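Ticket reopened. Same input as before:
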Amino acid sequence: MSFLVRFWGVRGSIPTPGLQTHRYGGNTSCVELEVDGVRFICDAGSGIRELGIDLMEEGPKPLTAHLFFSHMHWDHIQGFPFFTPVYVPNNHFTIWGPRTGDRRFARLLGGQMRSSYFPVDFHDLGGTISADDLGDGERVIDGVRVRVFHQHHPGVSFAYRFEKNGVSVVYATDSEIDLDLDDPELPLRDPGALRGVPQDLVAFCRGANLLIADGQYTDEEYPKVVGWGHARATTIVDLAVLAEVEQLAVFHHDPMHTDEEISDLIGHCQQRAASHGSDVTVFGAREGFELRLDRPPGRRQTQY
Amino acid sequence: MNDTVDDPVDGRLAFATTEATDISVLPKRLVRRPHILQIVAGDVAPRTIPLTQDSMSVGRSNEADIRIMTADLSRMHMRIDRTRRGFKCFDMDSRNGVFVNEVRVHSAVLRDGDLIQLGNVALMYHEGS
Ligand SMILES: [Zn+2]
Ligand SMILES: [Zn+2]
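Engineering reply: fixed in the latest deploy. New output:
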């Protein structure tokens, strides 16, 4: 089997092009999974435009893909009108709602393409777009089991878990798990201590080969942005440790953070995981990274 | 006209106007920095490899464009291509994998200072211009 994950956009809130973001990338949220040829796209931030360019050049013709949305905040949908494959006849896309009968995502996605905002109407796209839903929160789609989890974010957001033959990835962005800590004061009292996060979230992430999670803020920044809907990077490290995931991709980088600042934050997160006695691989999600999850991530063998 | 008054504009122009240099006579490396892979660790000799072709293979095989002789490497281990997003490395189904900054990748667009690890060999990528 083949289980590939590609990062097309990793930035939070707004695209941030420029020299300061060259390493991690400035495009907003878009992650593609390709599981035995079945394509899932998580969010349509500006990164989806780059994915579209690649699919037009070398993707299968006609193209089918399943679109999942964490939520409809603009940085997660703004790339959709620039995703060229939706203009191509015979390409087919399914927009998945999180609950039975929930077609909001398909509707809201079209909303940003009304004439005052964009020259091409959603209904005039060349490709076919249909809407479906995850029923009770779980569906098997083309052999891949997909589950949904409700997250703490202004107006709610959703995490998804994709799984096939024991290989799994959790996409969990725009989630302020710091609001749900067992002891909300612990990070201030004892910043290094392992934080208790909700058990149902730990269960949802349990044993994933890759957890892609919102880690927008440093510990220093967080007290000033409580309630904005994003987590401390250090808290998702603790989630990854408790859920015993194999790899953690810190995602939804703050638009104010430079490459250097993100690298420092990731270094701090790696030290934290090690201090908890965990061997989880922690890295900063980066545009242009492609992982193959059906292979052991291994460890580099030599210390230099 | 009062010729004792300084003309700031003229002064600035004079400062900026130096003899034009004919860059065609300069060695190319002064104009464009090449993209480079540099072997920085491993049981092979340190080496600097300019990425001169659009696609180059790395491995033990004598058919590899960049031949690195160590048992850890597969015969054809990695490919490195020039793409519109920058140079990109691909794992060619190698036994020991391709790691970029300690993450095992199937492929990755490279950025300046990335450390690529192939078995016990570490290569630093230097982004050119
Ligand atoms: Zn967001
Ligand atoms: Zn949001």
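Residues 8-16 of chain B form the longest helix (9 residues). The pocket of zinc ion (ligand 1) is lined by residues A 12-13, 73, 75-76, 174, 252 (CB under 6 Å). Please confirm and we'll close it.
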